[in-house]
Amino acid sequence: MVSKQHKSAATPCLCNALRQASRAVSRLYDEELRRVGLRTTQYSLLQHLARAGHVRHGDLVGRTHLEETTLTRNLRPLAAAGWVSICCGNDRRERIIAITDAGAAKLTEARPAWQRAQARMQALLPEKVWQGLLAILPEVTRLTAEA
What we know:
By secondary structure, this protein is mainly alpha-helical. It has six helices and three strands. It has helices spanning 14-33, 40-52, 57-64, 68-80, 101-124, 127-146; strands at residues 55-56, 84-88, 95-99. A three-stranded antiparallel β-sheet has the order 1-3-2. A hairpin with a 6-residue loop joins strand 2 (84-88) and strand 3. The protein starts with 13 loop residues before the first helix and ends with a helix. The relative contact order is 0.12.
């Protein structure tokens, strides 16, 4: 079966353009991470948890800019695999999430795949574009989260 590359149509809608770019970039990262049994979303959550230590669910929502239900859905397979623990906090409704030793090992195993994806993306983009995106996208996230 022949796979056709379709040229993305230019759009005046920033939201649509960012979503298209995000899906394309995620596919490239997923392709590399699939070899170690992870998706980009899972790798990202493990990274956040490795940096945060024990974190409340609500705080992880803020760190990841995910909707609560999306975060809960994305954590389920990580917990089922034993890569994260989800425990009750001081309040029965509060959930404390942490990466486990198995999750830290999975993250270490996956890092070379993530590095290959990074290298592939960096090779595709001119250096000024690469640096510009890394500089501006966090600012876009911050500004829209504050709006």
